[in-house]
Amino acid sequence: MTDWRSFLKGDPVPWLLEESNPYVRYHALTWLEGRAEDDPAVAAASQAIAASEPVQKVLRSQRPQGYWGSDPRPHHATQYQLTLLTWLGYRGDGAVKKALEYRMQGGLREDGSYGVQFKERWIYAPCHGANLLRMLLRFGMGDDPRAKLLLDWLLRSQEADGVVPCISKVKPFPCLWASGDVLRAYDELPPDWVTPRVAEARQRAVDLFLDNRLCYYKRIRPDQRWFQFGYPLHWDTDILEVLELCAPHIRPDDPRIQEGLSFVLGKQDGSGRWPCEKHPKGGKWVQRYLPLEEIGQPSKWVTLHAVRMLKRFQSNK
User: Fold this and answer.
1) Is 258 left (phi over 0), alpha (psi -120 to 50) or beta?
2) pTM to 2 decimals?
3) By the 8 A CB rule, do 182 and 164 touch?
4) How would DSSP label each residue in 50-89?
């Protein structure tokens, strides 16, 4: 792979760095320009995120016990707001840690498994467990011993071919979306967490996607959401994110990525920008706090992740 910029039809980075969107600006500064958290521009963007109305609205609406809304079930009462704060790049505070503690006390078992209550039924969901682990790491709670117990459960949940089963059903089935969620959590792990066991499990997950055309595992026609890009991603994923997550662990000339890479590159416009093509499932919860991007229009979020994907492949050549 030549310089990653050569795959762009224009330079979208100045657009991504505009101060009008501090969330994208923060990630562009850290992901694309490689600036540290103590860099003045990064610090200013982080402060702007913390002071923004969407973040403040989430924090103001939190109940004293640590959850949101009228449903006190730990997973249901925290998942959307914590997902939003993670996505926007909020660095966290005592309120976020209280919400994570509420969620862990109500859903995390002693063996590290993560459970979700649906009506009278209790289920175990690796997809949501992986998202919880990612939040613990992102919000500075990785030193909590329960985080490594959760990681150990996720490792045990993975099957020999790298897939993670959905064990929430009466008859479990292999779930590629859950596998993407676990790979997303692996991507957040600090270097000293990546033991040989973790590295081997991560590589099996990477190979799972690459050996199955990114999304065709045991399917002739994958869900069309795999081929549509938009943020935030919650428990689902798409081939753009899969490429972004796999990029640090494979060579950019690997023949298994060429079809998917060409598909992603074909969606950019003449300015090197990618459109928003979907909203999150049940996306009305996002709109309680901030507007969603307009479908069919250039998306700063999709463009950010597409450019990051290319840059990650470049760094692994």
Assistant:
1) alpha
2) 0.96
3) yes
4) HHSHHHHHHHHT--TTS--SS---TTTTTHHHHHHHHHHT
pLDDT at residue number 303: 98
The pLDDT of residue 16 is: 98
User: For 5, phi and psi rounded to 5 degrees?
Assistant: -65, -20
Q: What angle do CA 119, 136, 190 make, to 5 degrees?
A: 140
DSSP classification of residue 166:
E
pLDDT above 70 as % of the chain: 97
Residues of the chain with pLDDT under 50: none
Q: Is the bond preceding residue 232 a cis peptide, omega within 30 degrees?
A: yes
Q: Tell me the C-alpha distance between 147 and 132, whole Å.
A: 9
Q: Which amino acid, 176?
A: L
Question: Which parts of the chain are beta strand (E)?
Answer: 115-118, 121-124, 164-166, 173-175, 274-275, 298-299
Domains and CATH numbers, the chain: 18-51 (no CATH), 64-211 (1.50.10.20), 226-317 (no CATH)
